[in-house]
Amino acid sequence: MMAYPEFRYRTADDAPFKNFELSIICPQGAMSFDKFVYWPEGGYPSHMYDGHIERIADWAYVHD
């Protein structure tokens, strides 16, 4: 994704997900830290990373 080239991959070392997490940082301004998060098993909580979740297909959009 050329618009948001920064992404992160994490494994499940003491994390709330079971396998891995792929997150794409997509700031909307200087102080915004919104991101798309993908967990292959789904099961997203209603809040994570100090933001609320909006489900978009198999992804979670975290509003900061």
Helical residue percent band: under 10%
Radius of gyration from CA coordinates:
11 Å
> How many strand units?
6
The helix/strand series, from N terminus to C terminus, equals EEEEEE
Counting DSSP H or I runs of 4 or more residues, the number of helices is 0
- Contiguous low-pLDDT stretches (5 residues minimum) are none
Name the shape in a single word: globular
Q: Main sheet?
A: 6 strands, antiparallel
Proportion of beta-strand residues: 35-45%
Strand order of the largest sheet: 1-2-3-6-5-4
State the distance separating the first and last CA atoms. Answer: 21 Å
Q: Give the structural class.
A: mainly beta
> What is the mean predicted local confidence, pLDDT?
83
Structure description:
The chain has no helices and 6 strands. It has 64 residues and is mainly β. The mean pLDDT is 83. It has a domain of 34 residues. Strands 1-2-3-6-5-4 form a 6-stranded antiparallel sheet, with no helix packed on it.
Topology diagram in text:
Layout: E1 7-11, E2 20-25, E3 35-38, E4 47-48, E5 51-56, E6 59-63
Antiparallel strand pairs: 1-2, 2-3, 3-6, 4-5, 5-6
Which terms summarize this structure?
single chain, 64 residues, globular
What's this entry about, in short?
The mean pLDDT is 83.
